[in-house]
Design brief:
mainly beta, Tumour Suppressor Smad4, five-stranded mixed β-sheet, FHA_dom, phosphoprotein, FHA domain-containing protein, SMAD_FHA_dom_sf
């Protein structure tokens, strides 16, 4: 598979919760910008218009999926609506969960993306305005998940969350 380019990791101090002292003017501007526009690290207070809304999944899904990252060894089980991020909000709608993405390169946003299984068993993914994007990779072609627009997702697939690659597979029951 061809190497797919992605943006470099943000500098320390870019995210508001970075443990950095003595951040320069550029770091302060970047941090203020990220918080002000509410995209990379701003809190998402209203989940109603997203794939995490309870109206999106009104009954328990019949399928279970896994996301596996070979680089970090992390496996995330998608058995209900799941918010993915570097430090995801603990305040998600009832019936949903939050999962921390292990990201040693720091390219995953706090609330990066969400994956849900709708009431018909269809899998969906949505980007929450992440800084480095969410991508679906099939046959060497990368498709960006547009911010705020749920996109149907089929397994098996490869997902790029920031610069972390995950294999999405359906679990056999």
């Amino acid at each position: 598979m061809a190497t797919i380019p992605y943006p470099p990791a943000p500098e320390l101090g870019w995210y508001a919760d970075d443990p950095v002292t003595g951040v320069g003017a550029a770091g302060q501007a970047a941090t203020a910008g990220a918080t002000a526009k509410g995209s990379a690290d701003g809190d998402i207070e209203d989940w109603d218009s997203t794939v995490l809304s309870s109206s999106f999944t009104t009954k328990a899904p019949q399928k279970v999926y896994t996301l596996h990252n070979d680089s970090t060894g992390q496996t995330i089980v998608i058995d209900k609506s799941t918010l993915l991020g570097r430090k995801p909000s603990a305040d998600v709608p009832e019936g949903a969960k939050a999962e921390k993405v292990e990201d040693p390169t720091r390219t995953t946003s706090r609330n990066h993306a969400a994956i849900s299984i709708d009431q018909n068993g269809v899998l969906w993914i949505e980007d929450y305005g992440s800084l480095n994007g969410t991508y679906i990779i099939r046959d060497g072609q990368e498709t960006q998940v547009v911010k705020g627009t749920p996109q149907e997702l089929d397994a098996p697939a490869t997902l790029r969350i920031g610069d972390q690659f995950f294999q999405l597979t359906e679990q056999q029951r």
